[in-house]
Amino acid sequence: MNSQLSDFAARLRDLLQSHRFASGSQPLDAAFESLALELFALQFRHNPVYQKICTARNLTPANVTCWTAIPAVPAAAFKELDLTSLAPAERTAVFHSSGTTEQKPSRHFHSPESLAVYESSLWQWFAPHFGTAGPFLFLTPPPAQAPRSSLIHMFETVRQRLNLPGSAFLGSLASDGAWNLDFTGILRQLNIAVQAGQPVTLLGTAFSFVHLLDHLAENNLRFTLPAGSRVMETGGYKNRSRTMPKKELHALITDRLGLARAGIICEYGMSELSSQAYDSVADHPPSSTLHPRLFRFPPWARVRFISPETGAEVAEGETGLIRIHDLANVFSVAALQTEDLGVRRANSFELLGRATAAEPRGCSLLSV
Question: Could you tell me the pTM of the whole model?
Answer without folding.
Answer: 0.90
